[in-house]
């Protein structure tokens, strides 16, 4: 779970998932209100995790699975992404370049 770099409080899973669905690049700490940003390594891990859903779609097409099976794979991979994401988040106070 992410830890605020300002107040050093650990965010809950629910708080992290809630902040994950914002369009802003930063996340406001629910404890101190300071803006936190994802670290470069955290961005890379999240990018790799996001390939899980298209991979499930490709898997379904390559192995000629039924539409319902592909749909279940997509839903399951989406749930896995949402469940795992908070454990991969690391925060920083400064914006880091991706490369």
UniProtKB/TrEMBL annotation:
<dbReference type="InterPro" id="IPR026369">
    <property type="entry name" value="CxxC_20_CxxC"/>
</dbReference>
<feature type="transmembrane region" description="Helical">
    <location>
        <begin position="55"/>
        <end position="88"/>
    </location>
</feature>
<keyword id="KW-1133">Transmembrane helix</keyword>
<keyword id="KW-0472">Membrane</keyword>
<keyword id="KW-0812">Transmembrane</keyword>
<protein>
    <submittedName>
        <fullName>CXXC-20-CXXC protein</fullName>
    </submittedName>
</protein>
């Amino acid at each position: 779970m992410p830890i605020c770099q300002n107040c050093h409080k650990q965010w809950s899973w629910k708080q992290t998932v809630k902040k994950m669905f914002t369009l802003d690049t930063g996340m406001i700490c629910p404890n101190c209100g300071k803006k936190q940003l994802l670290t470069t390594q955290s961005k890379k891990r999240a990018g790799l995790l996001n390939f899980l859903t298209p991979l499930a779609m490709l898997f379904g097409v390559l192995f000629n699975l039924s539409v319902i099976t592909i749909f279940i794979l997509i839903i399951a991979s989406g749930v896995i992404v949402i469940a795992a994401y908070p454990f991969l988040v690391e925060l920083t106070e400064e914006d880091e370049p991706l490369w």
